[in-house]
Amino acid sequence: xxxxxxxxxxxxxxxxxxxxxxxxxxxxxxxxxxxxxxxxxxxxxxxxxxxxxxxxxxxxxxxxxxxxxxxxxxxxxxxxxxxxxxxxxxxxxxxxxxxxxxxxxxxxxxxxxxxxxxxxxxxxxxxxxxxxxxxxxxxxxxxxxxxxxxxxxxxxxxxxxxxxxxxxxxxxxxxxxxxxxxxxxxxxxxxxxxxxxxxxxxxxxxxxxxxxxxxxxxxxxxxxxxxxxxxxxxxxxxxxxxxxxxxxxxxxxxxxxxxxxxxxxxxxxxxxxxxxxxxxxxxxxxxxxxxxxxxxxxxxxxxxxxxxxxxxxxxxxxxxxxxxxxxxxxxxxxxxxxxxxxxxxxxxxxxxxxxxxxxxxxxxxx
Length: 366
Fold this sequence. Notes:
mainly beta; Immunoglobulin-like; Neuraminidase; 2 domains; four-stranded antiparallel sheet; 1 helix; elongated
C-alpha cells in the first residue's frame, strides 16, 4: 500500500464522528461598505480562514441549526437571513427575508428561532427551523434591538442600543417594562448565567457588567473592552468577547486572559458576533449506518466508487474554503480522476437518484 493511500485512508477514517471545536467570527467590516466576512478558526486563533463571503450585507449573528448541518447568518442591510452549509460555508438559500434590519437570533425552548429587528416596528419575529414565518412574538417593539436571552422563569429580555435600556417580556410576549434603564451607554449582547445573573456588554463604555436577577448592578466584570459586541463561552466558562477588531478572552472570574491572535493575512475590522461551536463530522449527511467510504483511492489520484454506493450518480467536491472545485455525473462510471486538484483536504458530496446524500472527506497529496 502506498504512503499516499495510507495517509488518505487514515484521514478519511479519522474524520468519522470527530468533534471539531471552532470559533466563528462575524465581521461587519466598514459597516454598510464592507468588506463583510465570516471567519472560522481554532479556539486559539490557529488555522483561521475565510469561511463565508457570499450573500453578506452587514452580517450580524451566526446561528447553527442542530442536527441539520446548516448555519444561518443574519444581515442588517438586506433584512435577510442566509443559510449555508455548516461544514463548507457554501451558500444554500435565503432562509428568511423582509426583516427590518436583522440583528440577533436565538433558538427558544419551543425550538422556534427568535429574531431581532434594528428598525421598523422593532417587534421580535419568530420562524420555524425551515424558515417559515410564525408570528411577531412581542406585542410591542424595541428600537435598535441587539441582544436577547431568557431567564430561568421563561421571561424574555431584549436590549436596545439607542434606547440605552433592557426590556423584559413575559412568556406570551407582553412587555413587563424596563428591566434596566439607567447606567448603560449602548448595550449589545446580554446573557443569563447559571446563577440567574445577567451579563451585559456595554458597547460605548467598553464595560462588561453583571446584574442580579432583579436588575441591580452587582459589579463591572471587566472594562477597557472597547466596542464590545459578540459573546461566547468555552467549556470552562471563559468568555470570548469581540472588541472592535479582535477577540478578547476573559477568565470565569472576569479577569483578562489573552487576545486571540489571528494570522497576519486575516484582517477583522468590526466584530459583530463570536460563536464557539462543535460540529460532529460524519461520513454522511443523513442517518446512514454504513461506515464505508464513498470513494476509494486506486492508483495515482484516481478514485473508484465503493460497490456499497453503486446507486450514486453525481459527485460534488469542495475545497477547504467551501468552493466547488469538481462536479461529475457518473453515468454508470465507477471511477473519477482528481489529478487536476492541488494538494489539500476536500469534502466529497455524493447524491443518489433518490436524492439521498453522503459526505466524505479525502486528502490529496502531490
